[in-house]
Design a protein that fits this description.
It is built from three helices and no strands. By secondary structure, the protein is an all-alpha fold. The chain starts with 15 loop residues before the first helix and ends in a 10-residue tail after the last helix. It is 49% helix and 0% strand. The protein has one domain.
Length: 67
């Protein structure tokens, strides 16, 4: 939290939506539109969460996500 923006840290518990994103990625969902639909988000917020998870949690499978 150095610049006033909240960032997800590795030790913070995941929220329901983040857990759902990870679960769907583990089931090989690779298209952003489908993933967003499955977790009940629009594409932009879904993509932002995927990037945050990739950066903070090391969910490397997310790098394969396509639009």
């Amino acid at each position: 939290m150095s610049n006033g923006r909240h960032t997800l840290r590795a030790f913070e518990p995941l929220g329901r939506i983040d857990e759902a994103i990870i679960d769907e990625l583990r089931h090989n969902v690779r298209h952003l539109q489908k993933l967003a639909s499955l977790v009940h988000l629009s594409q932009r917020p879904c993509q932002q969460r995927v990037r945050k998870l990739d950066k903070t949690r090391g969910e490397r499978k997310t790098a394969l996500l396509t639009e």
